[in-house]
Amino acid sequence: MSCSTYNKSLTHAAASGELSPAQREHLGACESCRIAFAEEQSLFAAIDSGLRAAANSEIPATLIPRIRVAFNDEPAPQRRSFSFLVWSFASAVVTAGVVLGLIHLSSKPALVEPSRPAPVAVAQNSPERTSLNSARTGGVSPLQHNRPAVLIESHDSRPESPEVLVPDEERAAFAQYVAQISTSPANISVRSALAPRGPQESVQISPVEIASLEPRQLDQKEGRQDQF
Amino acid sequence: MQEFILIEPGSAAPKLEEVEWTREAERSSLRSEFEERLADSSSLAFRVARGVLRNDADAEDIAQEALVKAFRNFADLRERHRFRAWLVRVSFRLALDRLRSSRRRGIREAEWIREQERARPVESETSREFQQHLERAMAQLPEKLRLVLLLSAMDGHSLDEVARLLAIPVGTVKSRLFFARKKLVEKLRCLVQLTTNR
Hints:
Chain A is mainly alpha-helical.
């Protein structure tokens, strides 16, 4: 094998301090490699002695007294108590909870109720529209879907601009029906009868009347029986 | 929640003064234990810091800072190996921080050269130059390699001790040491060739 093959491996060997049998054999035969290896070893030896000199520098005489002065000024060390650790952990958990809560609240979109079209009329045979309007008005009783034509007023209804949803084939009949209601003197009672019964409707409960009592004296027999 | 205190029959609850006295005794025992370790640990902290900073005055400052920190945490660091390992890490970190403060770097370099000349009056010029180059080459090594090199070069530190101080396996210490020395040789080879050709 040529010397160039051994060149790197000899540096490696000088760094680790271990020679393989093949390297040993080559060094015995090749003088130039032997010289190069010896130089490499002396360089490592110089580095090691330099490192020892740098790492074991003399300790200044002032070092220990000045450290002693510095730590004498310090309060004596104390072992951290269990309660301290518990309180630290608890406060960390609470802080994390508050921060997470704030993040959650700030990231949540504001729930804004969509503006509702005020009065809504629902006609028969239009289940899609009925369900749509039920949702809009905040829930209408399913029984109302069976009525021939129902006029539903939302709570913020504006009578001057009513919205009417009527199928095309029932439009004429519905117009007649509305005209009849609006011209009738009893339109209020009809409309209230047709209007959906929401939870806001108050129920009038008449107070319970207590019958008047007539005082009566007890019989003497009854009184004796009570004694036994 | 209701709290119960168990009191043995015939014994009284410990008085406040007794509790205070026990605490004070523990504090003084911690202080004396720390004092016992001061000589050994201060030289360790100083040498680690000096290996990084190459300046006695700065290394003294760092050793003091590291030991005062160690004293504050001594209650949790009473185990000898743990204490030394902690001290090496803190000293090395503090020294690196100090080294990185560029404001003082120029002054430190000038001081270091003057100090080197004062410290080794009998040394030949070649060996002094080599030492300076070696320490500069060491400063260019990665932190992990530098610390292993420094600790293993300290008197009384076997590879096992270095492994314990750095909390790494002995095999890792060996490989780091090998690479560190190889890098140093590569850096210093040119210098040796130059000096031999003179």
